[in-house]
Amino acid sequence: MTYEISIDGKSHKLELNKIDGRWECSLDGEKMNVDAVIARPNVLSLIVDGQAFEVKREMTATDLHLWVKSARFAVDVRDPRSLRSRRAAGAGVEGPQQLKAPMPGKIVRILAPAGTAVTAGQGVLVIEAMKMQNELKSPKDGAVKQIVVAEGASVTAGDVLAIVE
Amino acid sequence: MFKKILIANRGEIAVRVIRACREMGIRSVAVYSDVDRASLHVRKADEAYHIGPATASESYLNIGKILGVAKASGAEAIHPGYGFLSENAVFAQACADAGVKFVGPPPTAMQMMGSKTRARQHMEKANVPFVPGSLRGLEFDETREVAEKIGYPVMLKAAAGGGGKGMRLVRDPRDLKSAFEAARSEAQRSFSDSEVYVEKFIENPRHIEMQVLADEHGNCVYLGERECSVQRRHQKVLEESPSPIATPEMRLQMGEIAVQAAKACGYTNAGTVEFIADQQRNFYFLEMNTRLQVEHPVTELVTGHDLVHLQFRIAAGEKLPFQQDDIQLRGHAIECRIYAEDPDNNYFPSPGKITLLLAPSGPGIRRDSGMYEGWTVPIDYDPLLAKLIGYGATRDEAISRLQRALYEYFVGGIKTNISLFRRILNNGDFKAGKLDTGFLDRLLANPEQAVVEDERREGKSKIAAIAAGLFAVLEPTAAQATNSNGAKPSAEAQSKWKQAGRAESMRSL
Hints:
The complex is a heterodimer.
Chain A: E1 2-7, E2 10-19, E3 22-27, E4 30-40, E5 43-48, E6 51-59, E7 64-68, E8 71-78, H1 83-89, E9 97-100, E10 105-110, E11 117-118, E12 123-129, E13 132-137, E14 142-147, E15 154-155, E16 160-164
Chain B: E1 4-7, H1 11-23, E2 27-33, H2 40-44, E3 47-52, H3 63-73, E4 77-79, H4 89-97, E5 101-102, H5 107-114, H6 116-125, H7 140-150, E6 154-158, E7 168-170, H8 176-191, E8 196-200, E9 206-214, E10 220-232, E11 235-241, H9 248-264, E12 269-277, E13 283-289, H10 296-303, H11 307-315, E14 332-339, E15 341-342, E16 348-349, E17 352-353, E18 356-358, E19 365-369, E20 376-377, E21 384-392, H12 395-408, E22 410-412, H13 418-426, H14 428-431, H15 439-445, H16 460-474, H17 478-485, H18 489-508
């Protein structure tokens, strides 16, 4: 199996072959022999050259992270055979961008209604959770194309709140 | 002893009190709002009653509803926990009127300590020390005399003030005149009142508090101090007992003053007297907290006494089972408050679903938690999730045990402040016990300082890359299952169920 893996935005090529219950890994050409066991859902126990690692997988509505010891890595896994992931890989800050709720909460204010010109980092909406308010900012220069939620609405993590184009 | 007790709270403190009930053979009654149906305290209690919507004023702060549940369930007493109704004298009185025992002090003591000015009057009568200074506004000559007497540096404060307006710090007597005039005119402009008083300025203050217990027969003891100087936005983050700077003499003096303060207001049950202390171990009264504190476990670990058990026994009319001389502090305990907060986003609250929870255990570790894997942290309440407490024979041992436990602790799906404690416990000043209320702000101003080995990234990204591929093979997520075969997972899963179903029906034929 071959994967394209991005760790904190840096791409790696990983080949995996299972031989006699162990994994022969080639990471960017570097060969390693790995013993791997899923200890419980989202917890992977690895032994690499006698060094033991417990790797935790954390999935939220928007991201995938892996934790090695207490270090956290943003991860993206692509199978080059898949059309869908190749298409997804092309997405940058070009074109319409969705502004998603990073946490469950309540929309208390809309700062930039549809049609407002915004710059990257400018506040678009204010979300409140646990008695604290947080501004959600535009990911790019452009204009607010659509506000999907109303003031006062309750949202869950990952909900699309606005579209900036 | 009571046969049934209602817990008018939620989260980790409700779980902690419910545990004490079970240990003492008392039936526990939980109450919950709409968003807390699946909360841990409801799962642990013997009985549970819905009391209304998420908004606290319509549920956990609603005196009528809570007393209604007490009556319907036959609870003989109510433990208020901390926060919510715990320091509400009206609630304590309503309990008394309804014939339900409030596990806490009498409403008169709560009223007396609830107002700063009233508390000060009573405490001064009981010879409790306050920050030295003038109590009222003074003319310049008097101000200079008082400043000379209490010693520089001094702080000039507007009598009508607040929010730092009309305040001037004076380190050099030569600057007093100009500072006095500036403070006066600023006070006049801000509050239309030019009255200015002078107070000793406490350099690098520490926050130290004393635990007291009083029964209803006139006995009152102190159970040692807690150092609570590690704070952020006046919110305690980490507490320990004993205080790194306390000497036996300071403890004795502070303990006796705390007992005097409790006696002066007719206090009963568990309470805490808070002091501001300087680095030379002088200390001054701040306020009294008329409830069980969040940080009570550190006192339990070093004294060996269960404060909630004792609260129940005192409320049931029993005498304190020990005297002051019987109380010995042994070892050292430190508590970390685990909050649902995002360290990368200015510690903004981070509610949501807990997708993975790996909890530490082992020697010297106590964990008082209100969370579990699969639970969704509601957006409506305080973000305190759990308390991790480390105990050791020495402060160093308590620190190393906590560091080890923090290495084991993992909460996935939401952000927590666990990484903050790794940094605090690894900090040189913290290890040396050099604390004051500005410690945490200074630490946070240098985010790169004190990054611990376990958080360093070097050499770990390769492991992360290999793990990412192996996760994709061994335990693919729904999205990855789609990617590897091009089909929608739901359609595939459905067809497999269909196939299995058909195979089953074929076999039965």
